């Protein structure tokens, strides 16, 4: 098997239903999801399995679902019966966020991305996820897309924020508050 095909040498690539320029909004969207998926893999590889077995499993599931997101965005013609991303995936992310948030210290102010190596990597995932969401929204201005992909990416960035804090908490590393932040988060009590 040869990895290179030479079919993209003129600046075009194949998508489901045709060919587009490599800088097309569609390719930008699923390409950013691919970048995110690589960083999720990095996060999973540095997560100590003795401390983060649950997170490792969740991250691997997310990697599978990021492929689903990219696949759904690769269609040039909407075929809803072929979509892989559904609302139940968003609901599950919300349940995971609630589970991890219950382990985190109270948050009142903005925090700086960082702490442990795992937390820092998860914050990188969060910011790339936000960019992937923006790219998917840009694509949606020009063509129909599966709206569940945008919802999934939105919720996924919240997930990464929560688990970045959990990574610090489990390794007894406090989050660093942004010094000039006012109290911006309300605590549910």
TrEMBL record:
State the EC number(s): 2.5.1.17
Residue spans crossing the bilayer: none
Tell me the ranges covered by the Cobalamin adenosyltransferase-like domain, including all copies: 3-167
Any Pfam family hit: Cob_adeno_trans
Q: In which pathway does it act?
A: Cofactor biosynthesis; adenosylcobalamin biosynthesis; adenosylcobalamin from cob(II)yrinate a,c-diamide: step 2/7
Q: How does the record describe its quaternary structure?
A: Homotrimer.
Q: What class of enzyme is it?
A: transferase
**BP GO annotations:** cobalamin biosynthetic process
As its record notes, the protein acts as a catalyst of: 2 cob(II)alamin + reduced [electron-transfer flavoprotein] + 2 ATP = 2 adenosylcob(III)alamin + 2 triphosphate + oxidized [electron-transfer flavoprotein] + 3 H(+); 2 cob(II)yrinate a,c diamide + reduced [electron-transfer flavoprotein] + 2 ATP = 2 adenosylcob(III)yrinate a,c-diamide + 2 triphosphate + oxidized [electron-transfer flavoprotein] + 3 H(+)
| Keywords, sorted A to Z | ATP-binding, Cobalamin biosynthesis, Nucleotide-binding, Transferase
- NCBIfam families reported for this sequence: PduO_Nterm
* UniProt GO MF annotations: ATP binding; corrinoid adenosyltransferase activity
Name by which UniProt lists this protein:
Corrinoid adenosyltransferase
Family (UniProt): Belongs to the Cob(I)alamin adenosyltransferase family.
């Amino acid at each position: 098997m040869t990895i290179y095909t030479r079919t993209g040498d003129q600046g075009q690539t194949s998508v489901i239903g045709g060919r587009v320029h490599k800088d097309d909004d569609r390719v930008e969207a699923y390409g950013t999801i691919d970048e995110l998926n690589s960083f999720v893999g990095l996060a999973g590889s540095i997560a100590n399995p003795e401390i983060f077995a649950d997170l490792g499993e969740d991250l691997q599931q997310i990697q599978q679902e990021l492929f689903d997101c990219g696949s759904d965005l690769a269609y040039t013609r909407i075929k809803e019966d072929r979509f892989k991303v559904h609302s139940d995936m968003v609901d599950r992310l919300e349940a995971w966020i609630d589970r991890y948030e219950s382990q985190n210290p109270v948050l009142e102010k903005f925090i700086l991305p960082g702490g442990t190596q795992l937390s820092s990597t998860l914050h990188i995932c969060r910011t790339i996820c936000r960019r992937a969401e923006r790219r998917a929204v840009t694509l949606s201005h020009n063509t129909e897309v599966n709206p569940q992909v945008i919802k999934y990416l939105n919720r996924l960035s919240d997930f990464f924020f929560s688990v970045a804090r959990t990574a610090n908490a489990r390794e007894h590393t406090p989050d660093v508050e942004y010094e000039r932040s006012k109290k911006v988060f309300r605590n549910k009590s």
